[in-house]
Each structure stands twice: as C-alpha cells, then as structure tokens.
C-alpha cells in the first residue's frame, strides 16, 4: 500500500506542476490574494462554481479575467441589474426575415468562465436561469438544448455592504455554489505594491501558460487521489455535527442552528479537500485539507436561528466550533 501511495505521490507531483506556473503568471496582475486564487482553482478543478463576497475593489473581476487568460479560455461578464431578463443571460431565438426561420443567438453564459457581477441585484427569474445552466451544464433555447463549453465555471460576486434594491439568493440556490468565499482587504505591504503597479503606465500582461486539455486531464487525475476511510468519516462527522450538534457534545449550538449542511455539503467537502491536496502536490488527503476548505464549503449551507442573530453569531463561528469539537483522525 505504501509503495502505491509513493507512486501516486510522484505522479501527482508531476501532474500538478502546472499549478505553480498558473500562480506565477497570475501574480503578474494580482498582488497577494492567494486565498482567493486557491479557491478559484479548487472550484475550477472540482467542476464547481464559486460565490465571492467582498467590498468593491478587491480584484475579484481581475482574478477571474487573469485566470481565463492564463488558461487560454473564453470569458464573459454579466453585470446583473434589476431590469435584466433571462434571455440576456442564456440567449434567445431571433426571427430571420430572409430565411423565414428562427435563429439561435447564444447569450454570454456560453463561455468557459462567466463572471456574474452582483448576482443579488437581478430578480429571481434571471438568477434561476443562470443557476439552472450551472446545474444542468446546458441551456434550452426553443426546442433545442445546447451544451455549455467545458470547463464551465460561474464566479458570482455579492457586495455585502448594499442591501437596498437587492434580491438575496434563496438557500436552495446558494447550495448550488460549491464554495462561498469571503475576501478581506489586502495587507499594508500588499496594498503598497498594488498602488505602485497601478500608477505605472505599462501594465504586465497575463499570457497563456496552461491549456484547457491540461485542466481536463488534471480533473481525471484528481479522481485518483487517495482518501482514507477515516478522512471520509471525518467529513461526514463535520456535516452531521451541523445537523445534530447534540450528538457531538455541541448542545450549545442546537438552538442556534435552523438547518445544517445538505448531502451536497459532504460531496463538495470531499471534492474540495481532494483538490486542496492536489494543489499542495500531494497524492493523498489529510485532515488539514478538509479543515482548510470546511468554512468555504459550509458557510452558506448552515442556517441560523433568530437566537443566533441576537447573539451576533455568524455561520463562520458555528463552523469554527464544529471544527474544534469534532475529533480529528
């Protein structure tokens, strides 16, 4: 077994070498924000989608455009507004007078990377159209269904400051995002470097360093990463502790949690932990991989009661208490 693990380790080390190349290339345009870049890569290699929350100006758009350039992938941006229609996202059929027939005009969702800017600004119908495309990986226009390009990743952003005139995503819709990542301000030295780069007249261009075929191959390799039974049990314990806290000596949390993580939480926690191990160039998953991604996977899947809000408890606090209480294998 050890020989197999060593063999797998060597293979993963070789196959994951492109990750460092990607980081190096993206650092030409982005200063710091390694946490966000890690999460983007985890979502991409897991065939998942990501919801980014942070105040404006934290390089969310720049990060996804840089990633699409470094991977030589198609990119589109949809600015969500209250007057947006589902057809503005997925496309529509247009009647061609010359042919007396309908022609399909594909919408901006037909790209490898789709940035849904301020997703909570658009009404429910538009949100549903995008979320359906995310789930089904295809779009139906008229009688025809069209597959979306592969890889396909939606990066949606939310501004936590403004709540006026917004349409919050329902819990069931939030669950479709693999990760919800909250981005903070850069450190002072990082911001100094950002200012220096921005006042330069010449900007460094991100060049393609990885092909789409390499991403597809990496996804297949990740499926072969070794996950021990004890790690699987640890993942299940974390999710079950969010549903039945009293079983894990967390009685204090019982009145604070309205609902816990769904089975999607367990699936995505296992997937994200695998990719986290891959980008660390390791052929097997360790508890640290699970702990590293747990907050991003669980923060939008745990509902809090009014009692929790009265106590100023956030989902992050609940996840932290669960991580502290559940026994690490």
What does this structure look like?
This protein has 329 residues and is of the alpha/beta class. The protein folds into 2 domains: 188 residues, Rossmann fold (3-Layer(aba) Sandwich); 100 residues, Magnesium chelatase subunit I, C-Terminal domain (Helicase, Ruva Protein, domain 3, Orthogonal Bundle). Helices cover 46% and strands 15% of the residues. It is built from 14 helices and 11 strands. A 5-stranded parallel beta sheet has the order 2-5-8-1-9. It has a two-stranded antiparallel sheet with strand order 3-4. Strands 6-7 form a two-stranded antiparallel sheet. β6 and β7 form a beta hairpin. α3 crosses α11, α11 crosses α12 and α12 runs antiparallel to α14. The longest helix is centred in the C-terminal third of the chain and has 17 residues.
Structural class: alpha/beta
- CATH class designation of the largest domain: Alpha Beta
**Count of helical regions:** 14
| Approximate strand percentage | 5-15%
Shape summary: globular
Mean pLDDT across residues: 83
Count of domain modules: 2
Number of DSSP-assigned strands = 11
Helix content: 40-55%
Rg over CA atoms, rounded to whole Å, is: 21 Å
What's the CATH H-level superfamily name of the largest domain? P-loop containing nucleotide triphosphate hydrolases
Name the poorly predicted regions: none
CATH fold field value of the largest domain: Rossmann fold
- The succession of helices and strands, N to C, reads HHHEHEHEEEHEEEHEHHHEHHEHH
């Amino acid at each position: 077994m050890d020989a197999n693990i060593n063999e797998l380790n060597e293979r993963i080390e070789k196959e994951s070498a492109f990750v460092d190349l990607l980081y190096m290339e993206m650092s030409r345009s982005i200063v710091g924000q390694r946490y966000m870049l890690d999460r983007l890569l985890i979502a991409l290699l897991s065939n998942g989608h990501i919801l980014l929350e942070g105040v404006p100006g934290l390089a969310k758009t720049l990060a996804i455009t840089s990633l699409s350039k470094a991977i030589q992938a198609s990119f589109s941006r949809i600015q969500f507004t209250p007057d947006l229609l589902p057809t503005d996202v997925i496309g529509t059929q247009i009647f061609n007078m010359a042919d007396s027939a309908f022609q399909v005009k594909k919408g901006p969702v037909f790209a490898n990377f789709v940035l849904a800017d301020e997703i909570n600004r658009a009404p429910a119908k538009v949100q549903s159209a995008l979320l359906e495309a995310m789930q089904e990986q295809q779009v139906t226009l008229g009688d025809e269904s069209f597959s979306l390009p592969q890889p396909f990743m939606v990066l949606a952003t939310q501004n936590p400051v403004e709540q006026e005139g917004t349409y919050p995503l329902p819990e069931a819709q939030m669950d479709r995002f693999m990760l919800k990542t909250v981005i903070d301000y850069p450190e002072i030295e990082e911001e100094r470097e950002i200012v220096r780069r921005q006042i330069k007249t010449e900007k460094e261009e991100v060049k393609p360093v990885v092909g789409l075929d390499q991403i597809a191959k990496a996804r297949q390799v990740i499926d072969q990463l070794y996950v021990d039974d004890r790690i699987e049990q640890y993942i299940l314990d974390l999710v079950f502790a969010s549903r039945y806290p009293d079983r894990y000596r967390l009685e204090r949390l019982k009145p604070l949690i309205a609902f816990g993580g769904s089975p999607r939480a367990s699936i995505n926690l296992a997937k994200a932990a695998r990719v986290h191990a891959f980008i660390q160039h390791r052929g097997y998953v360790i508890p640290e991989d699970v702990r590293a991604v747990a907050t991003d996977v669980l923060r939008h899947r745990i509902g809090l009661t009014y009692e929790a809000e009265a106590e100023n408890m956030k989902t992050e606090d609940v996840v932290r208490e669960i991580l502290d209480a559940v026994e690490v294998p």
